[in-house]
């Protein structure tokens, strides 16, 4: 790594004073319209397109879609080997394929691809539909629910746990560990990550002793370049599946539901015209991205007049693309007629989210079945929005109510 000098404020010598701006990915937001709007306000109120923050060990932050796309599509300059801030939160195992760069990334991603292909995802969508109906019917007559715990953190998670063959009894334990990994209450504490690795090792040994047809069993039998995967490879892949499968869709569903609860006009469009739900789901996913991506500079170089040094970390929230007014007209507006060719919600480049097709189906199924049964719903009174940022944004709770017919 190239040595750099720093001033007394912890700013490296290659960072100009005008390039410094406050941003802390782990700082909770409360009382705002929504987190994505808050991020957009940073763009409107003077945040440089790319700036340096001293928070979490110091790193660059990308604010615009053009740069978001460039960094994610240039792995020779911006590697995935460090994919979290601060860098001390990197675990001793490599989460494959997400921490690999092409072409190594492709070989491991190909092992997961069949499980997320259209052939595999369509029947999962039907399971999601059946599960959605069961969950809704369970609280429909009450006229209220706490959406996060009673729905968002159940539907996609039950589907995922079925894919990898995990028992339902482990759900709450795993959710707690994943929460602490993605949105840590103590940034310097890695106990949750170590417990997840121990869990993964245990399940791997179970599958080798008694293999089944679930995805973890398939990986346990898989080969790369004609050789079986080593334990560390398998644990890294399973670890990645746990972080992705137990959190992302659940978080996105909560933001979407809060929007629909507070925007009856848009909700009515989908009630009156359910055929518009697929396009609406895409627009809602564009409007409410929830993931954070990190890359590390592989060598000293200049980009747009900014001096990057080998080892610099670059953080990109998916909001940087999806709510950029240089790419989308009135990006904070939810417009079901918007013609979106590409948005950043699922990332970009070789690492674009492999589970995006399943996520789309789960969101569409939710909208179709929920609006049939609970067409008119609202937030419970005196409820401030609280968002817990991190590598994936999330709302800790969302209380909604409706009139019982």
UniProtKB/TrEMBL annotation:
Keyword Heme carried by entry: yes
SUPFAM superfamilies according to UniProt: Cytochrome P450
Which superkingdom? Bacteria
User: Record's family?
Assistant: Belongs to the cytochrome P450 family.
Q: Which Pfam families match?
A: p450
Q: Which Gene3D superfamilies match?
A: Cytochrome P450
InterPro entries the UniProt entry points to: Cyt_P450, Cyt_P450_B, Cyt_P450_CS, Cyt_P450_sf
**Which residue spans adopt a coiled-coil conformation according to this UniProt entry?**
none
Question: What keywords are assigned to this protein?
Answer: Heme, Iron, Metal-binding, Monooxygenase, Oxidoreductase
Protein name (Swiss-Prot/TrEMBL):
Cytochrome P450
């Amino acid at each position: 790594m190239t040595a750099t000098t720093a001033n007394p404020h912890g700013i490296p010598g290659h960072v100009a004073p005008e390039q410094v701006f406050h941003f802390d990915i782990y700082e909770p937001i409360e009382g705002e319209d929504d987190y994505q709007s808050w991020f957009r306000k940073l763009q409107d109120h003077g945040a440089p397109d790319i700036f340096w923050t001293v928070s979490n060990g110091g790193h660059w932050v990308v604010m615009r879609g053009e740069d978001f796309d460039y960094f994610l599509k240039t792995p020779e300059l911006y590697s995935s080997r460090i994919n979290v801030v601060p860098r001390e939160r990197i675990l001793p195992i490599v989460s494959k394929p997400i921490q690999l760069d092409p072409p190594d990334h492709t070989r491991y991603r190909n092992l997961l691809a069949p499980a997320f292909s259209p052939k595999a995802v369509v029947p999962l969508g039907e399971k999601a539909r059946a599960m959605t109906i069961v969950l809704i019917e369970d609280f429909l007559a009450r006229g209220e629910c706490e959406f996060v715990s009673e729905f968002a953190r159940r539907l996609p998670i039950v589907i995922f746990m079925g894919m990898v063959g995990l028992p339902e009894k482990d759900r709450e334990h795993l959710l707690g560990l994943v929460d602490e990994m993605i949105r840590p209450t103590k940034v310097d504490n890695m106990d949750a990550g170590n417990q997840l690795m121990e869990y993964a090792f245990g399940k791997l040994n179970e599958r080798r002793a008694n293999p089944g047809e679930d995805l973890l069993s398939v990986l346990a039998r898989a080969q790369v370049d004609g050789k079986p995967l080593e334990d560390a490879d398998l644990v890294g892949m399973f670890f990645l599946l746990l972080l992705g499968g137990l959190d992302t869709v659940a978080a996105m569903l909560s933001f979407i539901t809060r929007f629909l609860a507070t925007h009856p006009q848009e909700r009515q469009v989908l009630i009156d015209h359910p055929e518009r739900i697929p396009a609406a789901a895409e627009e809602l996913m564009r409007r409410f991205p929830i993931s954070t991506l990190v890359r590390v500079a592989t060598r000293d170089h200049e980009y747009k007049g900014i001096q990057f040094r080998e080892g610099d970390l670059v953080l990109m929230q998916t909001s940087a693309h999806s709510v950029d007014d240089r790419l989308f007209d009135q990006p904070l507006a939810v417009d079901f007629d918007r013609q979106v060719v590409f948005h950043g919600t699922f990332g970009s480049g070789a690492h674009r989210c492999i589970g995006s097709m399943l996520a789309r189906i789960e969101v569409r199924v939710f909208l179709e079945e929920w609006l049939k049964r609970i067409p008119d719903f609202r937030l419970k009174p005196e409820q401030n929005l609280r968002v817990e940022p991190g590598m994936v944004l999330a709302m800790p709770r969302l209380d909604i109510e409706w009139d019982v017919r």
